[in-house]
């Protein structure tokens, strides 16, 4: 049932986004036309363009939505009486699942190609993603305030962890150099990344 509190325009936008998710999974991003999106969303093509000027804009919207669900809204709070390793591992594993997933990679390939000759716009879009405080930011701040992690530049520390993850299970797959990571490879990457991070930043009792 549609939310009665939303405007018709908001409901149509949700219909378009939902149709895009289904279409991209069925036909792939490249194989999905704006005509197909309009048909599946049961709206006019003009309505689609009123909400998303290009298919790439829709791709970016879905990427931001996935990032928000997996990295910002994820329900992992700092536990002062629990070991740090398993807590941080849960957050790192969530990021690995996101960036190494076929859905995110498929969207990222389209976005990367779209921005290849528009570096300024690419930088702006990346800044929008990283501007939001993620669950990992919040967790690290709490651990630092609790004295269990050393004083640090939290944004830099989060970026360092991102780079460890993406260097193994995102960039090589995005460029087609390596196949998608297996479950065992993802687990090993999470375990080793957390171990390296805590070896550097954890305060010793």
What does this structure look like?
It is a single chain. With 205 residues, this protein is mainly α. The chain has two domains: 7-53, Arc Repressor Mutant, subunit A; 63-201, Tetracycline Repressor, domain 2 (Orthogonal Bundle). It contains eleven helices and no strands. Helix 1 (8-27) packs across helix 2 (34-41), helix 4 (55-72) runs antiparallel to helix 5 and helix 9 runs antiparallel to helix 11. The radius of gyration is 19 Å and the shape is elongated. The relative contact order is 0.11. The model has no long low-confidence stretch (mean pLDDT 88).
* Helix content range: over 70%
Please state the overall shape, judged from the principal axes of the Cα atoms: elongated
Report the total helices.
11
Q: Label the structural class.
A: mainly alpha
The string of secondary-structure elements, in order, is: HHHHHHHHHHH
CATH fold type of the largest domain: Tetracycline Repressor, domain 2
The overall strand count is 0
> Can you tell me the residue ranges where pLDDT is under 50 for at least 5 consecutive residues?
none
In the CATH scheme, the class of the largest domain would be Mainly Alpha
Strand content: under 5%
Mean pLDDT: 88
Task: Please tell me the CATH architecture of the largest domain by its name.
Answer: Orthogonal Bundle
Biggest pleated sheet: none
What separation lies between the terminal Cα atoms?
54 Å
Q: How many domain units?
A: 2
Specify the CATH homologous superfamily of the largest domain.
Tetracycline Repressor, domain 2
């Amino acid at each position: 049932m549609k939310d009665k509190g939303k405007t018709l325009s908001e409901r149509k936008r949700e219909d378009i986004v939902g149709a895009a998710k289904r279409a991209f999974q069925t036909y792939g991003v490249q194989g999905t036309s704006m005509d197909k999106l309009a048909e599946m969303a049961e709206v006019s093509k003009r309505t689609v363009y009123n909400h998303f000027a290009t298919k790439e804009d829709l791709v970016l919207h879905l990427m931001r939505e996935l990032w928000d669900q997996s990295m910002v809204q994820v329900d992992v709070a700092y536990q002062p009486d629990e070991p740090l390793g398993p807590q941080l591992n849960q957050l790192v594993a969530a990021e690995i699942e996101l960036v190494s997933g076929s859905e995110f990679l498929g969207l990222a390939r389209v976005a990367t190609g779209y921005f290849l000759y528009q570096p300024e716009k690419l930088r702006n879009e990346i800044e929008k993603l990283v501007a939001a405080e993620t669950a990992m930011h919040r967790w690290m701040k709490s651990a630092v305030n609790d004295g269990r992690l050393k004083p640090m530049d939290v944004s830099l520390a989060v970026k360092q962890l991102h780079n460890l993850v993406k260097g193994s299970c995102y960039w090589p797959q995005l460029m087609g150099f390596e196949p998608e990571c297996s479950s065992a490879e993802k687990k090993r990457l999470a375990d080793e990344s957390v171990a390296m991070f805590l070896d550097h930043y954890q305060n010793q009792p």
